[in-house]
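Aim 2 progress update. The chain analyzed this quarter is reproduced below.
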Amino acid sequence: MKKIKNEQALLKIALSVGEKYAINRGFKSFGATDAAKQKVEALYRLLVQDKLVHPLPEDQEDLLSMKHKLALWIQKQLPEGHELLK
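Predicted structure tokens:
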């Protein structure tokens, strides 16, 4: 897995956008006490279910890989010329 530039910042945006997407799909928002791990896994699974992200092989489904997939997903959603894409 190749590390992408600004991966942490992209993940932060992905969690924010992903939560709004989940709410629009009818899910309740995450609570203040929900762990980041739970958010990452829930959003990853929702995006896989909606076929917006290709699923990881079962033996490679770990937190780091899911974070990486979310960062890649949001990277493709950002407009050309966005500051995190430079």
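The mean pLDDT is 91. The helical segments are 7-24, 36-49, 63-77. These observations will guide the mutagenesis experiments scheduled for the next reporting period.
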